[in-house]
Fold:
Amino acid sequence: MYINFTDDAMKRIDPILNKTENRRIALMYEDGVSPYSVTAEGAMQNSLVILILRDDQPLLPWFDLEIDSNYGKIPVKGYAKSYLGDQMTVRLSSFGGLIIDSEQGILDDSAIVRDGTDMTD
Structure:
């Protein structure tokens, strides 16, 4: 599995990712499971979240699989693998939102970037 972030998508993510040192990306299937999920209502609205975490925030037991990307290794919830594709792309839509697609088609046409760096303090 691989995730390619286009240059335009990176421009959208980098201000949050690079706000301070020691941050990383996780790709989260929003199912209400993990301290980084929001309410079930949020899970109904968004299926994939590009989550920005501090390096010292825990990933296990929730994020137990890593996917290669042009950002490096990205943790994901292993049981959510069936919702992902082998070759994924994160790109901007014509309206400026983030789309995650793969060889299977669009996986999420309204993916969000969430700053989760304060979610486990």
Q: What stands out?
A: Residues 2-115 form a domain with the Hypothetical Protein Aq_1857; Chain: A; fold (CATH 2.60.300.12).
